[in-house]
Specification:
Elements lengths: L2 H18 L8 H18 L2 H5 L1 H10 L5 H18 L5 H4 L5 H11 L4 H50 L7 H52 L4 H9 L15
Helix pairs in contact: 1-9, 2-8, 2-9, 4-9, 5-9, 5-10, 7-8, 7-9, 8-9, 9-10
Length: 253
């Protein structure tokens, strides 16, 4: 679980709650209905129903999934390369089913099945492209939410002002109308800037890292398929790692 994302949201909300003092004054059911209901309705208009319901999975991925460890990935691939160099590629077949990462397992299976490196590259790069498209859709949905929430807050402000101006003769109705006018903007800004945009940024970073790891795995698979020396494969894999992480994975054997 990524505690940084959850902690960041809760910490920001807690600080704002402390600054508000009496938080009860900032709770308005009508304002929440306008912002939340309007935002969800706009999402239904902009995206297919199936895509809208997948938003929860996108947010869950940002909150719960962990970053892939490139050092562990490199160590695993180097171990495979050493076995293949010593005993042949077919000796890896019993190990393929034990690979947890579905992308790496698929690539290793293609290699063990005897496919040419060009064919493996085409299949695995197509997988990378499809993964990037799914990530981009998730980021696009959260960007849309971050745009709709403040806009619906502004609509709520207009509604509140119209109600207030329409009932100026009755002072008792001015307060509730003004509350809607101000609080809807507040709700929209909070959702956009403390929830949707930060999660969107986290997903972008996660997507970049995940794609880099997939490219790293593909380079290792192709190196093994071509019969490269484990030392050469190690150098290729380290090219995908930050400088501070290089040299941490020793050659097996």
């Amino acid at each position: 679980m990524d505690f940084a994302t959850l902690f960041g949201i809760l910490f920001s909300m807690a600080l704002i709650g402390l600054a508000l003092g009496d938080a009860g004054n900032f709770v308005n059911a009508s304002g929440m209905l306008i912002v939340l209901g309007g935002t969800f309705g706009a999402m239904l208009t902009n995206y297919p129903l199936k895509t809208v319901f997948s938003t929860g999975a996108v947010i869950r991925k940002a909150l719960l999934s962990s970053q892939p460890d490139r050092a562990q990935v490199a160590a695993q691939i180097l171990e495979f390369s050493y076995i293949a160099r010593r005993e042949g590629i077919l000796s890896l077949e019993p190990l393929v089913k034990e690979i947890a990462d579905p992308y790496l397992r698929k690539g290793m299976q293609l290699m063990v099945d005897g496919l040419e490196p060009q064919t493996i590259t085409a299949i695995m790069e197509n997988e990378i492209n499809n993964t990037e498209e799914r990530h981009e859709l998730g980021v696009d949905m959260l960007n849309s939410l971050a745009s709709y929430a403040p806009a619906l807050g502004l609509i709520g402000t207009v509604i509140g002002l119209v109600r207030m101006l329409g009932s100026m003769t009755d002072p008792s109705t001015i307060g509730p109308a003004m509350a809607i006018a101000l609080l809807t903007t507040f709700y929209g800004a909070i959702l956009a800037n403390l929830v949707f945009l930060p999660i969107c940024g986290k997903l972008k970073n996660r997507s970049k890292t995940e794609i880099q790891v997939m490219e790293m795995q593909l380079a290792g698979i192709l190196g093994i398929a071509k019969g490269e020396n484990p030392r050469v494969i190690k150098e290729m894999l380290e090219g995908f790692q930050p400088p501070r992480e290089r040299g941490q994975v020793p050659l097996p054997g």
